[in-house]
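hey m, so remember when u said the tokens were messed up on ur end? i reran from scratch. heres the input so u can diff it against urs
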Amino acid sequence: MSVEAMLSSLKNAGSTALEIIQTRLELFSSDIQIGWQRLLSVLVLVIVALFSVLFGLVLLAILIVVLYWDTHRVFVLSLMAAGFLSIGIILALFVRAQINSMPKLFEASLGELVKDRDHLA
């Protein structure tokens, strides 16, 4: 085999390796952008929803306490506190379950890298 053929073969292998690396970096970049966009959209929705619900609940609690101020204010305040705490705990457990069920970041990219490694081995 001539030196020129070996250099050409080596050049082709290097070019192929660089193309593979470029493709994988583009895939990583795409994964990061998708993950970031998903996180931001969910975060905005969560913040708006929490603000709206909490503001409404505070106004409702004030209304109920004012209505029962003369007769059963301690009982009503206790019920309201227990209700808010229960809702908060339930929602915290729901959020934790949602976070645990999120897909693994770079899952597609890592899968492609495993395929590349297996193909080259």
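this time it looks ok to me. The mean pLDDT is 82. if urs says something different then somethings off w ur setup not the seq
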